[in-house]
Specification:
Blueprint: H1 2-58, H2 65-87, H3 92-117, H4 120-123, H5 126-161, H6 165-169
């Protein structure tokens, strides 16, 4: 009789432990999905600012149509990739598509900023300056949100890959690791000027 009770207690402990593994996987997945939702909000904010930037610049940059068109196309492509990523955050293939779309948008925006530098009147435009300031602020928010997402993904992947959760992850609906979201950083590290006497 005592052997049966010990067996029963052991089975209950194992079941409770397996339930805790399931709950932890769900909690960590929900955490990185919520973190991606924050990225989603900030990227949408950026995508909403870009058409305003283009509208302000259109008249002054009428013969720079190709640059403006490239920014618009890259923005639309990134917006579509974001919508797809929002439905499956962390899925490697979808995250890679979003990364490529964001890289294209960053390149287009860099080209746009170079062209704006050639127009002093446009550079001094108050509305354009405000939009650029909002865009820079949004970029910082995106960087913070991306870091939070990547941290949450790392916690999820670490837990999922550890033993014994790895034994239960696939059967519990967590068949693969979540992918990090990494954008190309255009900021270059500036070196200190060399001084010679």
């Amino acid at each position: 009789m005592t052997g049966f009770v010990i067996f029963l207690v052991a089975v209950v402990i194992i079941i409770l432990y397996v339930i805790s593994i399931y709950n932890q996987l769900v909690k960590l997945k929900n955490r990185f999905q919520n973190a991606f939702a924050q990225i989603d909000v900030q990227l949408k904010r950026r995508y909403d600012l870009i058409p305003n930037l283009i509208d302000v610049s259109k008249q002054a940059m009428s013969h720079e149509r190709e640059t403006l068109q490239e920014v618009i196309e890259a923005r639309n492509m990134a917006h579509s990739a974001l919508q797809e990523a929002a439905s499956s955050p962390g899925e490697p293939k979808i995250m890679q598509q979003l990364q490529k779309a964001e890289a294209r948008l960053q390149n287009a925006m860099s080209g746009f900023n170079v062209v704006v530098e050639a127009y002093p009147d446009l550079k001094a435009n108050q509305t354009l300056m405000q939009l650029n300031e909002e865009l820079a602020s949004t970029e910082n928010r995106i960087a913070f949100a991306r870091q939070a997402f990547n941290d949450a993904v790392m916690f999820y992947n670490t837990y999922r890959q550890s033993f014994p959760p790895i034994l239960f992850a696939a059967p519990f609906g967590h068949p693969m690791d979540a992918a990090l979201l990494e954008f190309e950083d255009k900021a270059k590290i500036q070196q200190a000027p060399k001084v010679s006497f």
